[in-house]
Design goal:
Beta Polymerase, domain 2; 2 domains; four-stranded mixed sheet; 4 strands; 60% helix
Length: 302
Amino acid sequence: MTSICLFGSWARNTADQFSDKDVLIVGLTQEECDSVAYKWRTSGWSVSCFTADHFLKMASAGSLFVQHIKIEGKIVEDSGILSAALDCFAPRSDYSRQLIDAFEPLSWIGSTPRSYWSQLCIADILYVICRNAAVVANAISHQYIFEHTRLFEFLATEAKLTDEEYVSIARLRSLKCAYRSRDSGVTIRDDVDRSVASALKIAKHFGDLHATGSRPSTWPNGYHELRRFELSLLAKYDPRELDTQIPGDQYFEIWQLVCNPADYPKLRKFASEQGELRLTQLSNESFQYKEALVSSLKRSEV
């Protein structure tokens, strides 16, 4: 009783050497989803896996991921669950809050100690920031674009990036792939610092357009908290060592989640635990999201 759908560049027939092989699996139970997902993962696919209940909630909430599936997905197998969710889907009228959320990691990413692996991880995070921000910014104008080249060209045009700045964000895709494939031979130089500066310029442009005095409504964000924790681990460990963790090792469960953030039940649990810690930290340090982001933006202008 599972539904299976290809999406992304493989579904569009535009895949290249940097493309993930993306597949969506929706099942009645988590156990059913996990069983099918395991087969696809062992065949080299990047799996997004949801129970039917969770996916229907995403659809009713106007998730842009569901819009992506509706527009570009190629259904391989359907129990009726997926088609029913897509039939009832309608985009939200406003995604402004999601745009602010997309840039949240820029409030802390610049202060991360730089090692070879942390720089590649930062590039991975920056790629996700830029891509998600471009998807959401287009959705605010009721345009739904998901192909990476068009998205990054949109950012360059909107934020008036120079050719050098555009190259710095376009380079993120290959650096992201290098990180995920654990390539230890990439020459980085100052690529990541340039990319951070370009991302801050993009954030400033869209922040000026969609200014708000409040913290993002979904903060702490489970995915963002997970990436922040991932960076903290890379300050101490080589990711290739963490990849060899086995059940019972200190970081086995959390590293499995890092490598597969689409495991949403565990991600929600992690977000809840980290959220409590982060909110305590916020109270103790009088930290405000907007102030941190504005501070980062000012540093990028110096």
